[in-house]
Design a protein that fits this description.
The complex is a heterodimer of chains A (109) and B (112).
Chain A: E1 5-6, E2 9-13, E3 18-23, E4 31-37, E5 43-50, E6 55-58, E7 61-66, E8 71-76, E9 85-91, E10 98-99, E11 103-108
Parallel strand pairs in A: 2-11
Antiparallel strand pairs in A: 1-3, 3-8, 4-5, 4-9, 6-7, 7-8, 9-10, 9-11
Chain B: E1 4-7, E2 10-13, E3 19-25, E4 31-37, E5 43-49, E6 56-57, E7 64-68, E8 74-78, E9 87-94, E10 101-103, E11 107-111
Classes of the chains: A mainly beta (109), B mainly beta (112).
Chain lengths: 109, 112
């Protein structure tokens, strides 16, 4: 079955790096995504990685993909209070997105 | 471009009442989706529409119906609301390349 797993909570100090992990199940996903949800809002696409890539960097964000272990991670450098949100990874084995449960990132001063 | 819009933003229903959640997108996307979000469960797909005139069940369709009125609009109907349908409902539309989905702001529904 389809099951994308994430830890539920992460707490980091402002200025530190955050690493959010995700384990997915379907190796046929062409793209893997990270979405961000701020309180009371919908989901916004944060970044994505094509399945034939190992790493993608976009300013403070680094996505690492380990296809062998079906493991995806999102690293946020110099984490700020504005990064506090829920982060969802998602796989796309078909034309539908399969979301993880979300990781709530809390940034404290 | 407004992107994906949803109405209403909040709704309180009594058990057994019916209502329709509205969704519209102005990005000329073919595919549209309805999800529900519950604490600790991520987003679960209720129904989707790959193109105008077609709809398909997702993971949790029971208790819901949908209508793809035209390319822009995709509505979700609760015929007889139940407390288990208390949730936040999100509509999304999909850009064909990269499978990227764009989300509306959500409707927070409480069924008493």
């Amino acid at each position: 079955g389809e099951d994308v797993e994430q830890s539920l909570f992460l707490s980091v100090r402002e200025g530190d790096s955050s690493v959010i992990n995700c384990t997915y199940t379907d190796s046929s996903s062409t793209y893997l995504y990270w979405y961000k949800q701020e309180p009371g809002a919908g989901l916004q696409l944060l970044t994505y990685i094509f399945s034939n890539m190992d790493m993608k960097q976009d300013q403070r964000l680094t996505v690492l993909l380990n296809k062998k272990d079906k493991h995806l991670s999102l690293r946020i450098a110099d984490t700020q209070t504005g990064d506090s949100a829920i982060y969802f990874c998602a796989e796309t084995p078909t034309d539908k997105l399969i979301f993880g449960t979300g990781t709530r990132l809390q940034v404290f001063p | 471009n407004a992107g994906v819009t949803q109405t209403p933003k909040f709704q309180v229903l009594k058990t057994g009442q019916s209502m329709t959640l509205q969704c519209a997108q102005d990005m000329n996307h073919n595919s549209m989706y309805w999800y529900r979000q519950d604490p600790g469960m991520g987003l679960r797909l209720i129904y989707y529409s790959a193109s105008e005139g077609t709809t398909d069940k997702g993971e949790v369709p029971n208790g819901y119906n949908v209508s793809r009125l035209n390319k822009r609009e995709f509505s979700l109907r609760l015929e007889s609301a139940a407390p288990s349908q208390t949730s936040v409902y999100f509509c999304a539309s999909r850009k064909t390349n990269r499978n990227e989905q764009f989300f509306g702001p959500g409707t927070r529904l409480t069924v008493l």
